[in-house]
Amino acid sequence: MPPQISRLVLLTLGIVGSYAVARKLLVPATFGQYGWYRGAALGENAAREPVFSGMKSCDECHSDVLLNLGKYEHKTVSCESCHGPSRAHADDPDVKTPKGKFADGDCLRCHQSSPSRPLWIKQVDPLEHYRSDRCTGCHVPHQPKETP
Ligand code: HEC
Ligand code: HEC
Ligand code: HEC
Ligand code: HEC
After folding, report:
1. Closest-approaching ligand to the CA atom of 81
2. Disulfide engineering: 84 pairs with which of 10, 41, 92, 98, CB 3.0-4.6 Å?
3. Residue with CA closest to ligand 1 atom 4
4. Which are the contacts of 58, defined by CB distance < 8 A and separation ≥ 6?
5. Could you read off the pLDDT of 34-60 as tens digits, one per residue?
6. Pocket test for ligand 1, best of 51, 61, 94 (most atoms within 8 A of CB)
7. pLDDT digit string (tens) for 114-136?
8. What's residue 40's pLDDT?
9. How many domains is the chain partitioned into structurally?
10. Structural domain of residue 77, as residue ranges?
């Protein structure tokens, strides 16, 4: 056999061998247990504590707010999409909800005009839309077409 061939064979064996060793060392143990992912990820995710509580849980103590919100334009928006994940507060009202002060950016997160937003969401350009006050100065958050 010409020496070039045996060198090529050795080189190929080297490359394939180091790939096999690296694969053995780097692929997590439970990868492929159920499919093309790490089997243990299922258990790890299921074990995480939920941080959202869901709108129904607010009903127990804030049914007035729920009833009111349901009559106005924000009826499809969940409490926690504005007030933040509030499971800790719902379990123990002494714990504050995560959002302290509301900033204009919190409204603009949904209402800033953007071509990527569906047209049914009313959008404003913050540089043109009444710059004289904060959003909540003119819009009551739970009934946004009303003025405080
Ligand atoms: C077990 C009763 C209870 C439940 C359940 C509850 N709350 Fe409250 N919440 C309270 C009480 C009591 C206060 C008033 C506390 C105060 O005035 O300091 C309050 C105050 C608030 C406030 C204003 C003060 C703050 O913490 O920012 C917000 C906002 C709020 N709740 C949102 C929610 C949301 C959203 C939910 C559902 C995920 C919820 N609450 C579930 C009892 C509850
Ligand atoms: C569009 C965003 C938004 C949604 C949706 C929303 N809130 Fe609020 N909420 C606010 C803002 C902003 C304030 C602060 C008002 C202020 O400072 O004048 C507030 C104030 C409150 C307060 C304090 C006292 C009061 O009644 O004004 C409570 C309690 C509260 N929200 C509970 C809820 C609950 C329960 C829900 C779901 C049914 C909900 N909110 C949905 C934005 C929202
Ligand atoms: C999580 C997304 C979300 C946030 C945050 C939010 N909104 Fe809305 N808002 C909506 C949706 C959805 C509607 C109903 C569809 C529509 O009319 O655009 C709505 C409706 C409105 C309307 C009524 C528009 C009309 O003429 O019918 C106003 C005004 C408004 N929001 C102002 C605010 C203000 C002010 C804030 C901040 C306190 C805020 N929104 C925060 C999603 C949001
Ligand atoms: C000085 C008062 C004032 C301030 C501040 C203000 N708005 Fe408005 N907003 C209005 C009035 C009045 C209307 C209804 C008439 C119009 O569209 O001009 C309106 C309409 C809207 C609408 C519905 C637009 C549509 O296409 O029907 C949205 C959404 C809105 N505002 C969001 C916001 C947000 C978000 C902020 C904060 C960045 C804000 N507004 C600040 C007075 C105000």
Report:
1. 3
2. 98
3. 90
4. 65, 66, 79, 86, 90
5. 999 999 999 999 999 999 999 999 999
6. 61
7. 999 999 999 999 999 998 899 99
8. 95
9. 3
10. 51-100
